[in-house]
Amino acid sequence: MAKILIVDDDQDVVEAMRVVLGKFRHEVVAAYDGSEGLEKTRKEKPDLIILDVMLPGVDGFEVAREIKKDERVKSTPILMLTAIKERTGIDFHKEAGDPDWLPVEDYCNKPLDYEVLIDKVNRLLLTRKTS
Amino acid sequence: MKETFADITPEKQLTDRIYWLINLRWIAILGVVSTVFVVSQIIRIPLLTKPLYGIALILAIYNALCVWGVTYFKVHLRYAAIKFVASLQIFLDLSCLAALIHFSGGVENPFYFYFIFHIIIAGILLSRFETYLMAAYAACLFMLMAVAEYRGYLAHHCLSGVFATSWHEYPAYLVGSSFVLTSTLLIAAYLTTSISARLRAHERSLQTANALLAEKDRIKSEYVLRVNHDIKEDLAAIHTCIEPVQKGITGPLNEGQKDLLRRVRERSKQLIVYVDALLEMTKLKLAEKLEKDLFFVPDFVKEISESIGTVAAERQIVFEVQLDPEVSKMNGMRVYMAEALLNLLKNALKYTPDKGRIVWEIRGEKDRLCMKISDTGIGISPEELPRVFEEFYRAKNAKAKVKKGTGLGLSIARKIVEMHQGKIWLESVLNQGTSVHLEFPASLSS
């Protein structure tokens, strides 16, 4: 069981994920925009952050960079959600992990495939525990 | 690529007309040489052939220089500069015509009415004021020649044997012909510039209308983009919410519930695919210029064929890639190029029955890069062939074989190919197969 922070501006998507992650006995905390995401990261100290790219105000990239700059929370793994068809011009497969540019541990494509999501969540939580 | 109305800039238009002028000049030079030859050798009127041929030679040299100059500077010149070149040419042409007339009888030579042609050309190429200036210059040239020959400052070269008297000695004739010529030239200048002005105004209004239409089209595309974006967000949320229920994550379901939810999910997924394609097409329409990068073709081809190859193998379709080893690099928009090719190859897969065959050829030629994707699929009927690139169009037999489809795959591919200054066309035989041909300029592979 772990505490997971979901940062996504779509409440329905957050609720769907909450149900799924809840089934795996994870505790879910939600934030609906970038600054709330940062705030909750610092306050709640989650074990994992699921972060959407497109957020109102501070976007997902900026949130990830801020988190990785903060000594207290920088070790928290981030799983980024991307809509593959939205051409961000970014090759997540190659660029994820770059500490300056895209400091996220992994990514998931939207619309979500829950099997993939659960698999990645579990893997990230496991590496966090072992490290 | 096809030239659209908006691409015709005033510079290009004027340059085209200068080419036209140059071509006319070649004809005029031929005309001078042949007339001099016929008049002196066949009709046997004594002419000073040497200076006349000399002027023709000068004209030929100057025209050749014009060809070189216009071709060489074409891309760099601004409108004012091109216009100056046009004025200079007309000025020189008038001077040469005056010289030709002087050496072939002066005022006695009725060819002096040819000055009109130059004024008409000036009226088409130049502004109203400049055209009147040219008309005045032509009239002055004629009058100066008449006066100089009358007063003996210039030698008069008589057309002996044609006229009983030397007309250049009669002041009344000189005044009369000067007046008629001058007024003719001015009227010609007036008429041509009036018509040109009207035509130019018409052209401008067409251009404005065209720009307005393009702007409206852009606004429409932006609107489609926004609406689609919103629709997609909702669809994605629906999809995301149904999945855990349908997969039984939220609790067990009976068979009927499972089946209905599976249907809901399938339909929402289909809608997402459709909206994605529409978004893609709209974005491509709005994109003006995209960044190009240089990439390695073998890697690119490998990446694409791997994803296609897996599906092909499952359906026992032979998928063959023939890559010309000469083609190593491509300068283009990799992501888009991949999308276009994936669209085409997926189409081939979709409409080729199991155990069929798909061949993707990539060939480098001297001045272009060619690709061909051929399949042994259901083909397209000749009546429908011209329509398959239309947005949302799906051929009847395609609909019968695969019910779902956006009808946008080929339009997107064509748009991307055109963004690379390429061409795309189809050859197809019903029930035998289709070949998609792609052709790009060589600059793409350098």
Structure described in brief:
The mean pLDDT of chain A is 86. Chain A is α/β, with parallel strands linked by helices and 131 residues long. Chain A is 42% helix and 20% strand.
Keywords for this structure?
heterodimer; A: 131 residues; 5-stranded parallel β-sheet; globular; B: 446 residues; alpha+beta; Heat Shock Protein 90; 5-stranded mixed β-sheet; two-stranded antiparallel ribbon; 10% strand; disordered N terminus
Structural features, described:
- The complex is a heterodimer of chains A (131) and B (446).
- With 131 residues, chain A is α/β, with parallel strands linked by helices.
- Chain A is 42% helix and 20% strand.
- Chain A starts with a strand and ends with a helix.
- In chain A, helix 4 (92-95) links the parallel strand 4 and strand 5 (106-110).
- Chain A has a single domain (3-130), classed as Rossmann fold (3-Layer(aba) Sandwich).
- In chain A, strands 2-1-3-4-5 form a five-stranded parallel β-sheet, with helices on both faces.
- In chain A, helix 2 (34-44) packs parallel to helix 3.
- Chain A has five helices and five strands, in the order βαβαβαβαβα.
- Helices cover 62% and strands 10% of the residues of chain B.
- Chain B is of the alpha+beta class and 446 residues long.
- In chain B, the strands form two sheets. Chain B has a five-stranded mixed β-sheet with strand order 2-4-5-7-6, covered by helices on one side.
- Chain B has helices at 10-42, 49-73, 79-103, 115-125, 128-151, 171-246, 255-286, 297-314, 334-350, 396-401, 409-419; strands spanning 293-296, 318-323, 329-332, 357-364, 368-375, 423-429, 433-441.
- Chain B folds into two domains: 5-213, no CATH class; 293-445, Heat Shock Protein 90, CATH 3.30.565.10.
- The interface between A and B is medium-sized, with 18 and 19 residues.
